[in-house]
Amino acid sequence: MLMRDRYLGVRSLGQGGFGATFLSIDTGLPGNPCCVIKQLRPTSTDPNVFQMAKELFEREAQTLGRIGNHPQVPRLLDYFEYNKDFYLVQEFVSGNNLQQEIKRNGPISEAGAKQFLSEILPMIQYIHSQQVIHRDIKPANLIRRDQDKKLVLIDFGAVKNQVNPQTSTSAADQTALTSFAIGTPGFAPPEQMALRPVYASDIYAVGVTCIYLLTAKSPKDLDYNPQTGEMVWQKYVNISDNFAKVLKRMLEVSVRHRYQSADDVLRALDMEPYMDSLAQGLISSPTKDDGLPSSGNPSGNNDQTPASGGATSATQRLAMAIRAKRARREQSSGRTPAKTVPSSINRNPLSSRRGGYKSSNTQASRRRTGKLDAKTVVDSYVKGRRDFAQQNLSLLHLQDVNLSGCVFHQSKLMKVNLQGANLSNTNFGRANLSNASLRDANLGRAYLSYANLEGADLRGADLSFASLTYASLKGANLCGANLTNAKISEDQLAQAKTNWTTILPNGRRGFW
After folding, report:
1. Burial of 288 by CB count in 10 Å (0-12 exposed, 13-18 middle, 19+ buried)?
2. How far, in Å, CA of 58 to CA of 55, rounded?
3. How many structural domains is the chain composed of?
4. pLDDT score at 61
5. Residue 364 above 70 pLDDT?
6. How far apart are CA 179 and CA 139, in angstroms?
7. Active site residue 136
8. What is the 3 state secondary structure string of 398-442?
9. What is the CATH number of the domain that holds 450?
């Protein structure tokens, strides 16, 4: 059938309660490119159902027209009425959906699930910023585009915020209408099934999709806790405890306890790889003679020492919480908790100026507040120290050393030499690495969000799966670097130097 003297149907792609989808060609353009046409054709003859379907259809057109400029959302090409039927013409996305991929290849690994989340969450973030709740996120609605292997989210037919079926509709029609309007059972959370969707409803659906990818089991094949209504999925997956905690919070039945936004999940995923090393590195206080300055007062900068004499960094606050939790656990079990040194004594040698503890060992105090040298860093790491947050390590020569899993949050590392060093799973969040030498360094899964890497030498560095979100890369040399699956934007790469040996995030070699 040739519609509007332009669109020629080729074959059916699917059919639902409200219409059908066809693969078509656009004869009005050179080369006759493919497109997808959605036709409104309800199976019910009830006028109320038809009116509801028409409103949802028009809403989908309006939504696609507003947000279709995103590269991972199909563009709306046309919208028209023909022979009393309504049609949407959309960009054709060539590829398999995630449901097809899992059926063909089986479940994915934890690394694959994290990569999936890193791809879809920024897309959800954008959609929510446009005041749109998708309400039908599931594997069948996520297509892996053949052209660039990126995920594309389709089917915006359920974006209406509330559906009130007319009482005159029959039970069968009402069921079909409800299932279309509020999403897919199992993937939709309770509040959405009760017709009260919020942005966090899409977060739940993403979490269920992640479970499907990890287990190859749809929600109907999983058990549910009869008391809480929670999905029972943990026994089917083999993932780290920290990642399991992230997924568990995404799948909270209660909206109040669930992540409220895609940005919340992204932040949790950014920090998740470092939680274990952070806990291990900060559980114990530094030894008296390790010569290591306190991370609460790096390099003796008085302006970073709070008047209360307490910890200044997020890592220290987390460490204190870990110690307190361990002490409470030991007390409840009847054991005598390990003696801890008050943070005002252990962490802030300058607190005597504010009426706090006054150290009698001024020489040791100076050692703890002085700038670290390379030997001290390496020796402290060997002894088990991992927290180097807010330290001044500029100009140090640390080539070929192993500092995997360390925390350098907000540290000064200008012109530091870390050539060939093992820095995998290391936290450089908000650190200053300007003009640093990181040539051939292992930065796999490193956290470099908001870091300053201007002018840094990253030639040949392994940055696979690294997080470079909002990092400054102006003038950074990425020639020969491996950026496979790294979190980095096109704008960031445009500011850096790349060449044909650079491996881009999509796995391909070449200039950006």
Report:
1. exposed
2. 5
3. 3
4. 83
5. no
6. 17
7. yes
8. CCCCECCCCECCCCECCCCECCCCECCCCECCCCECCCCECCCCE
9. 2.160.20.80
- Do 269 and 118 form a contact (C-beta atoms < 8 A)? yes
pLDDT-based confidence at residue 101 (cuts at 50, 70, 90): very high
Q: Are residues 204 and 263 in the same domain?
A: yes
Those residues with Cβ within 8 angstroms of residue 105's Cβ, 6 or more apart along the chain or in another chain: none
Average pLDDT over residues 127-135: 90
Answer yes or no: do 77 and 113 share one domain: no
Q: Which residues contact 199 (CB under 8 A, 6 or more apart)?
A: 128, 133, 260, 261
Residues 6+ apart with CB under 8 A from 223: 231, 232
pLDDT of amino acid 476: 96
Rounded Cα distance between 481 and 132, Å, is 38
Q: What is the pTM of this model?
A: 0.55
189 shares a domain with 176: yes
- pLDDT digit string, tens, across residues 462-490: 999 899 988 999 999 999 999 998 999 98
Identify whether 211 is part of a domain. yes
Q: Is 183 part of a structural domain of the chain? A: yes
Domain boundary among 91, 111, 126: 91
Q: In this predicted model, which residue has the larger pLDDT, 235 or 195?
A: 235
For residue 359, count other CB atoms closer than 10 A to its CB. Answer: 15
Tell me the residue range of the domain where 427 lies. 387-512
Q: Which of 43, 42, 45, 39 is nearest to 24 (CA)?
A: 39
Distance between CA 318 and CA 475 in Å, rounded?
34
d(CA 476, CA 492): 10
Q: Are residues 100 and 77 in the same domain?
A: no
SS3 213: helix
| Residue 319 within a domain | no
Quick one: pLDDT at residue 164? 36
Taking phi first (over 0 means left), then psi (-120 to 50 degrees means alpha), and beta for anything else, what does residue 304 get? Answer: alpha
In a domain, 8, yes or no: yes
Active-site annotation holder among 136, 202, 457, 462: 136
What pLDDT, on a 0 to 100 scale, did the predictor assign at position 286?
44
